[in-house]
Amino acid sequence: MADCIRVPLLLLLMSGGPGAAAGNPGPADRSPVAGASPPRRRSAGWKLAEEAVCRDDLTRLCPKHSWNNNLAVLECLQDKKEETEIAADCNHLLWNYKLNLTTDPKFESVAVEVCKSTIAEIKECAAEERGKGYLVSCLVDHRGNISEYQCNQYITKMTSIIFSDYRLICGFMDKCRDDINTLHCGSISTGEKDIHSQGEVIACLEKGLVREAEEQPGAHAIHDDCKKAIMRVAELSSDDFHLDRYLYFSCRDDRERFCENTPAGEGRVYKCLFNHKFEEAMSERCREALTTRQKLIAQDYKVSYSLAKACKADLRKYRCSMDTNMPRAREARLSYLLLCLESAVHRGRVVSGECQGEMLDYRRMLMEDFSLSPEIVLHCRSEIEAHCSGLHRKGRTLHCLMRVGRGDMGAIDTLCQKALQTLIQEADPGADYRIDRALNEACESVIQTACKHIRNGDPMILSCLMEHLYTEKMVEDCEHRLLELQYFIARDWKLDPILYKKCQGDASRLCHTHGWNETNDSIPPGAVFSCLYRHAYRSVEQGRRVRPSEAGTQGSTLSRDCKVEVQRILHQRALDVKLDPELQRRCMTDLGKWCSEKTEAGQELECLQDHMEDLVTSCRDVVGNLTELESEDIQIEALLMRACEPVIQAHCHEVADNQIDTGDLMECLVQNKHQKEMNEKCAVGVTHFQLIQIKDFRFSYKFKMACKEDVLKLCPNIKKKVDVVICLSTTVRNDTLQDAKEQRVSVKCRKQLRVEELEMSEDIRLDPDLYDSCKQDINRLCQNVAFGNAQVTECLKENKRQLTQRCHQRVFKLQEVEMMDPELDYQLMRVCKHMIRRFCTEADGKNVLQCLKQNKNSELMDPKCKQMITKRQITQNTDYRLNPVLRKSCKADIPKFCQSILNKATGDSELEGQVISCLKLKYADQISRLCPEEAAAQEQTGQVEECLKVNLLKIKQEGCKKEVLNMLKESKADIFVDPVLHTACALDIKHHCAAIPPGRGRQMSCLMEALQDKRVRLQPECKKRLQDRIDMWSYAAKIAPAEGFSDLAMQVMTSPSKNYILAVIGLGVALLFLMGLLCGRITKRVTQELKDR
């Protein structure tokens, strides 16, 4: 035990007890002291109280009952606060007395008698060689294990005396003489410093040791032997703060102020003072002494008596400490102890509650004061000076450094960042938020309101706080502290204890991780979570590109509990781009280039997604992967989910309640984007996600899963979603038009393709080609029209004649697709949604417009829908290609009669109604001359036709007159063909002819009979219109041309000039007969002459 305290003997002097303290005088006795008794052999009954040099001090400072006990007198006098309280001669006498006590080997026998049973129990002490003073030194080392009362009192008193002066500690002077002189910590010469200043010498050396560890400028390298001696002194004084003389005198008033009721021993006073270190009433000198003590504990956990005692068994159990000749070795550091035992706790091993309590105290200590971590003091010096000076209390400096590390206050040195990350792992605040005092104080109100249902200290408190980030319940200070801590927790998956607990098996199996406090160069801590979420969301069957490192784990998936935790972490990380280490690392440049002005929550990721094509490859890959992940589980977008809560509860709660989201929730939100519950934030978020999806078809999870095989087969090398949709839609359309026996696009893909086409029709921005082609026209003609509900597209259609050529061509192509498939006409389907349900439930989707046209004039038809149908009819009349029924019916006649028009047209240009005009009879001039007002009307309700019927007599052109007569004839056969009459008589049909089926003039005959029946009262307007129709039909019958022989015979027989007509016909027949006779005679005569020859 050469390095331990060598105290030959301390005589336990009770009142009147053995008092051979005079013994053989020590070296100090040879120096005469003024006013003191000369060195002499003192009697057994000699008492300090009898010495003249100390009598005045003793009477003034010590209670009378202690005068007969030399040890009590010594303890009383040496514990006085001020050096000037005791006369110098008395001080020197006390020193000589203590030196004599510790240098007389005869008194070892007293220790043997008092501690007989204890020595037998402690094998190390029983084995010590007697007579050399090592026995008492051994008892000091093991005083924590002494249970015998008298022995314990003896060792306690002896220890108090020894630690009052470093010169009494054997070997200390020899080992630290050079360092004391170099550091100017004081002289070791007897008499130059009194006993009260000796604690300052130790404190000076301890500060020098701390400066060296922090590599401060000008720090002196203390010799290793002296280092061990210093740490040994600190260790031996760990149980009773009286033994740390400098700290004792520095904190004596503070002890009375804060820890008056805390009994000394077992390090209790130290812990109490540590807990009050940052109180305003704490003296600066005491705070400095406590900090030095804490720094020594950080270098060697044994300097903390309570921690070493509480965790001794656990350290041995989990092999956290190893024998070493160097107390400052790695195994002795507080950080190593914490990491080792925290690893055991996180692995589910049993660590005693007492030890865990001590660990919690020291983890909190590390988080409160950054200066206890030498690495941070060394490597973060410039950051502290630049940004965080003056904030050292209650963990504020540490959080300031964390904020710098996040990049919120400039760049941070790599070594400083690493030191911060190491400290967070050592303190492990993720396991208990209370360790982080700054966070605890900032978030107390939030925890009390939003997280009161969670047990105090539970790791789920941090998750609860993250869930309420950017909500009304969150306060700004808590938000900052929380993000600063989560930034570092996000960079090491082990620092989230719940994630580690649920996923440690999966991480070891799939990602080849090691223990909690072990490092792995092949897969750093920040990459483990990326590995976990790849296995959680993207299996090989889903088309995930397997990395070489994952080749052996194909088909491996996470456990259910682990996947739930991975989802939770992803939801939290989506709140702030800096919480995703891989994203921030790869996209740092792009964030600065494109998104420097995006400071609101969630804006940075949206910005990166908006600039997807402009990002560097590595950044684009990680943003693409994250976007693809969001398409599968949009609940990762926590901010969007909060904004959309009302519409989710009203329309999508069944989908949202599913534990596994496969894109259904986003699809539901898109479908309900225009519901009344939809707010602006949610609508903007949903639209943004739709816009992002068009950049790559893989960003639409359901579409990707339904059509990935079709895309690979039919549309290879196409990436943009809109191009993939067009490619597949064109394939489906061609197969349909060509009556292919088997569709090349699978059924499940066709079904999802329809969903994507409908979504794209809702907002022009979802069709990039159309939007880019028409952007200039939109700004010119539709600048006040809002996106969504296809309003901008409808605006372009209404202003089609004013569009630029490129935009006009794109709009025409869009209309052609919509007319072929009216379900893609978003405005028509939206405006006429209820009418479709009423009239066209049985109609095929592609015949919806035709069905609506047939029911257009029904009295039950909604006016807005009717107007929309009319618009579409007008559009169809502009080009035969926009009228699928006409195009199909006239596919043979159009090339036959209108080829010249087709030859002049190009595929992208609109024919402006030329083909339809070619097919119709040319009576447009009659319409414009006779019915200008009706022709100009936007809504076609039959008024033009009615005007033509009324003005039938004035129509000069036979072709137009014939068309009008045909209309009259058709209306007689079916009243629905006559919209004016049908509208006027709708109520009467319902009342009088409801049971009569339409067609073949049946309902018209019913109305005519009702008109003749005087008992039936028709509506005035209906009665008037019917009478007009009777007159028109009468006139039409007179002037209408006969369509056949029977029709001609009927007209002749009913004509007033019947006899005249018959006479003329008879005369014509007679003339023909006579001419035939004459011609026959001539022919016959020629033939006879030929015969006669």
UniProtKB/TrEMBL annotation:
Coiled coil: none annotated. It is found in: Golgi outpost; Membrane. Residues 21-43 are annotated as: Disordered. Cys-rich GLG repeats lie at residues 221-281, 350-409, 473-540, 557-616, 677-736, 744-801, 802-860, 955-1015. The chain crosses the membrane at residues 1060-1083. Residues 1-23 form the signal peptide. One of its GO terms (cellular component) is Golgi membrane. It is a single-pass type I membrane protein. PROSITE patterns: GLG1_C_RICH. Keywords: Glycoprotein, Membrane, Repeat, Sialic acid, Signal, Transmembrane, Transmembrane helix. InterPro entries: Cys-rich_GLG1_repeat, Cys-rich_GLG1_repeat_euk, GLG1. One of its GO terms (molecular function) is fibroblast growth factor binding. This is Golgi apparatus protein 1.
